[in-house]
Amino acid sequence: MRSVSTTALAVLLVACSATGGIEAEGPQQDPALVESGSELYAIHCAECHGDDLRGTESGPSFLSIVYEPNHHSDESFVLAVTRGVRAHHWAFGDMPPVVGLTPADIEAIVALVRETQRSEGFEPYPP
After folding, report:
1. Which residues sit opposite 22 in a β-bridge?
2. Contact assessment for residue 109 and residue 77, using Cβ atoms and an 8 Å cutoff
3. Do the beta carbons of residue 62 and residue 121 sit within 8 Å?
4. Does the pLDDT value for residue 20 go beyond 80?
5. C-beta of residue 123 within 8 angstroms of C-beta of residue 61
6. What is the pLDDT of residue 25?
7. CA-CA distance, 113 to 26, in Å (whole number)?
8. How much of the chain is helix, strand and coil, in % rounded to 5?
9. Cis omega (within 30 of 0) on the bond before 126?
10. How does pLDDT run across 37-77, given as a tens digit for each residue?
11. Which residues does 26 contact at the CB level (< 8 Å), separation at least 6?
């Protein structure tokens, strides 16, 4: 049993980045899509989720491990934007739908989020 615990600890330590976060893996996103997503994110998302995606007093950080792709898929982001979402991990309250975004706009924002997660890594949950 000790070797399993030691192995698990070693894996966890290797998964932690230099900033103390948890490294994220995944494909690099299309730079043009990420740039477009950055502009759209700044207009529609940054007020609550922060300019750096690390959240504000109004909304959570998208760099939280809660938002890793195996827990919140890209489709989860699409549904949150188009339909809104009930608060279930955080005490920020429900998120209303974001009006005025096309499916292509949402795809670009998700590309920005995923690329930032890939490059920055994830923060532990709870923060």
Report:
1. 16, 122
2. yes
3. no
4. no
5. yes
6. 79
7. 12
8. 50, 5, 45
9. yes
10. 999 999 999 999 999 999 999 999 999 999 999 999 999 99
11. 69, 114, 117, 118
Quickly list H helices, the chain: 2-15, 31-44, 46-49, 74-83, 103-120
Distance CA 105, CA 79 (A): 13
Residue 103 DSSP SS3: helix
Stretch among 18-32, 43-57, 110-124 having the lowest mean pLDDT: 18-32
Which is nearest to 97 in space by CA: 42, 40, 45?
Answer: 45
pLDDT at position 3:
41
First CA to last CA distance, the chain: 30
3-class SS of residue 9: helix
In DSSP terms, 85 is beta-bridged to 95
Return phi, psi of residue 38, to 5°: -60, -45
